[in-house]
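Record pair follows.
FIRST:
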Amino acid sequence: MLRVEALEVAYGAIRALKGVALEVGRGQIVALLGSNGAGKSTTLKTISGLVPAARGTITLDGESLVGVPPHAIALRGIAHVPEGRRIFNRLTVRENLMMGAYPRRDPGVAEDLDRVFALFPRLEERITQVAGTLSGGEQQMLAIGRALMLHPRLLLLDEPSMGLAPVLVEQIFATIDDINRQGMTILLVEQNAAMALGIAHRGYVLETGTIALAGTAEELAGNADVRRAYLGE
């Protein structure tokens, strides 16, 4: 579904990505692991058009995304949940969710809103609440729900567990797994490697802008280097 090949990105003289190649198959969760500064967020931002590629190709179902502006990439079916959530603090929960559906003119918006509320009942309880007053976990639910309101083909998730209490991390990952089981394809960037590999089908390890390891989630979870570097063993 998504194919990235020989992707290079530079910030001035600094090469952030150096020939990154990865694939996300339809219906899969693919985890992208790595330490801070490895280039994980840059990879997602480049896929969604927020950062330009210096070289390489990015295709979604065979169509090139290189040079396509972010709003047009969203319209092609890629929704990006950025690190830090980036909700609209002064808007209500409902208004935030409807911002996710702003380009849509189809009759399925109400159905997708019901689907989001089924996944995150807390959001329905707080539908009129100003988003900036929500807890961190609720804001993460809102960020994911807003992305789902686009009715995307591919969901990019950047550090969904960041700053959350362990019980909320488990809840968020259970919901991500549920979203995938309903048919959503997901590319997941996550520092919590154990949780990510626990729900992923496949994964990649990014080190200083280069793919160092790739394999099934089971293969990566059993790899001695991954266990030592990312699983605390």
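SECOND:
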Amino acid sequence: MLPLSEFPPVPLTLEGSALLHQFFRFDWKAWRSLDADESKLIVASAIETLTGLERANSNAPIQTALFSELGHKGDLILVHFRDSLEALNQVELDLAQTELYDYLTPVHSYVSVVELGLYESSRKTYEAASKFDQHTPEWDAEVASSLERGASAMAPRLYPSVPEAKYLCFYPMDRKRGEQVNWYTVPFAERQRMMHEHGLIGRRYGDRVKQIISGSIGMDDWEWGVDLFAEDPVVFKKLIYEMRFDEVSAVYALFGQFYIGVRLPIEKLDSWLHGKL
């Protein structure tokens, strides 16, 4: 059996849907200056565009969701799940063509891809490939075959629809890589142990929170984005608070800003624009 010390230091991952989070501030003053007929036409057009982005048809999975954002950071959040970065870029272009977009100011965005970390199965895969020299064509083929089997089995998790929960919590995060504390210099076995214990906490909340982790190394300013969806927003506090006592978070995690929103059904956009959820 291949000693863990001889494993490649990078755990294997599976990637799926491309994600785009958009955060906007709304120009309420300019909007209130419009006459009723003009604003009605703008809203109808925006709803038509957003409905088309939401899902391909009434039976298709939800690909775009709209949220009314709480706090000073912005007014609206749009979350998009697509099959490629090109498709996400097209979403941006489609939205920019609407007249409603003239009243939206982007204040933040986040680009990432759904990521499943494979600390557990990486060990088995590397052991199976150990009959070949690392990074030879034979070794690469063995690893690729294992990943292909994993991707097929985990397709629903790799290509999820946007959950139909009432509340969203989103935040980015890094693993520390400073001079004294550096996640990337910790031996593979130790990282595997810590990630296993970390995952046990999340699984205890699985019946109340839908969690989607996306990787963003090389795509955005942080290493991962975390989406939490739930019917009760207090559960976000409980889950994240408990996780902060876990070694992975307590010692090795850095967190960015947190964003929270309330689901805004697209057909209720007109009500929102008149000050009602």
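COMMENT: The radius of gyration is 21 Å.
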